[in-house]
Amino acid sequence: MKIQKVMVIGAGQMGGGIAQICAQAGYDVLLNDLQEDSLDRGLTVMEKNLSRQVGKGKLTTEEKEAALNRIIRSTNLDDASGADIVIEAAVENMTVKTEIFKKLDKFAPAHAILATNTSSLPITEIAAATKRPEKVIGMHFMNPVPVMKLVEIIRGLATTNEVYTRVEEMTKSLNKTPVEVNDFPGFVSNRVLMPMINEAIYTLFEGVASKEAIDDVMKLGMNHPLGPLELADFIGLDTCLSIMEILHEGFGDSKYRPCPLLRKYVKAGWLGKKTGRGFYIYE
Ligand code: NAD
Fold first, then answer.
1. Where is this site: Important for catalytic activity (predicted)?
2. Which position among 152, 198, 230, 242 bears the catalytic label?
């Protein structure tokens, strides 16, 4: 069956971006979050992103309006009854995700694929919360979604080839490049990236250099477009901490222990760009 209706769970940084590119690619989108004000925030960001594209001449005003008109707001998971695929992008927490998947399994039609944008949690465990593990898959978009080309696609133990192929095709229809990886904590992207960010936080914590110096070393010396601390602020320090905890627990190896300074910032509510303060201050 052709995928036409996409439900996105979570209207934050990632869910908003996923909803936007799906709408731009012509899919009908249901954007779900817990509260109306979260939907308002997500849609405002999307409106700004699309207007910027219009300003740059990459999009016409009509295309922008058409994309926005393809998005329907939802605060109720039973709206999944109208979806061919659900892409979950709520917070990085196994309890939250399994609760959502149990409900989606109940409400989504039997043919619907249930995908998660988790950065690091086991797909097989999320799938086990449903009675359709063969239709559960990881679809890991990168941030910012409208810009980054990669989508890591992760099969759970029971995911069928047919489901994999349909998700791969949908990814290409969004003008993204799918890369298949196996179901291990952090997959490839965060297994490699997050320990580097955590190590950068340790170098700050131990007084090896200032935050600006650490970021300069990695930008000027390694040709990274963003320094690791700027990148951590951009990703969200809560998300960084969750991923490090998942790597630490998943591999049982002390090399993945989260830096105490990262924990402290998260406890303080300094979550990075999204809260106005992380390692840097954002006006
Ligand atoms: P975010 O904090 O910006 O947004 C999360 C949204 O989910 C919020 O709007 C919140 O209200 C909503 N939410 C929470 N519980 C919900 C529920 N039960 N039902 C519906 N909505 C709910 O977080 P984010 O950065 O967009 O991350 C979302 C997911 O994407 C996480 O799993 C994260 O690991 C993953 N991810 C993040 C990045 C990144 O760079 N931030 C990159 C790739 C993947």
1. 140
2. 152
